[in-house]
Amino acid sequence: MHIVKFYQGDGVMRLKLDTLEDLWTVQRIVLPDDLVKSRSLRKFKANDTDVGELKEVIITLRVEKTELDKNALRLRIMGKIVEGRPEQYIRLNSYHTLNIAPSDTLDIIKASWPDYLVNVVKNAVGDTKKPRLGIIVVDDEKALPAYLLGYGVEFRNEIYSNLSKRMTQKDFQEQQRKFYEAITSAIKSMDVDTVIVAGPGFTKDDVRTYIESKQEKIDKRVIYQQASNTERSGVYEIIRSPEVESLLKSEHIRGEFAIMEEFLKGLSSGISKYGIENVAAAIDDYAASTLIVNDSMLGNLDVQKILAKAESMHIKIDIFNSVDEAGEQLASFKGIAAIA
Asked: pTM for this one?
């Protein structure tokens, strides 16, 4: 993602998008009643009997809702047309959907840009410059690959060993070799600088031995660690482990886990608050130094008022990914919390 221009006084930010993560970032910051301007296609009919023809137009919408389709690599921004050109192909106040994809450019226009939303964009721009991390948790039954991306954790298809104790020793060894080869191929295909191979038992060590014995050429750093299982929780365990802290210290998701731990400690002593009313009261009482809020809450008007007041008081604001583990944990505390 690149910020092409940003005129804070006019409320206009133009973004050039590159990846799926960029679409997810735009979804976080585009809220109902914002204006979004971009190129689009719209069917034009010269008369009622005309079948219509798709015309390229530039449309400005007043946003009502957004939907992210990861499979189609599209962010759908829906709302009413407030402006467009060429004018002969535009009908003001009619509904339209902008289908935003990687490589597209769009203008996001707000009445004002709060710093916490500007920071979301700047962090996303910074994330594009950071190496990503690959993780594969393995045992003798399966391997689960995952990526740590700028927007959170993305899990890939599991790789099964298909091993059975009923196999002859020869068949067992051949199937095991195929399993290790599939894991090696997954490591090679990961578009990252570093891959962590982790899991319970000795399978991760056997994978290492296999790779070293074959003298496989892998153009990335591979680190081997212990994990308690090969489920998604095992991946999150690796992310939070002190062994990889130096690798993940700049990743936002690790920061989310650390902040949640701080919030939970304060909760037990009564100095952390959660929920809209309690957080608002904590701010009024000067009893909040940090606010944490799920991105799914940013469209709530009461939350926007709280964040605006917190910003005016120079209270730190951290926005969580609501679909990650820390965000799901925060959702159980009504999606917004204050730390003293």
From this structure: 0.72
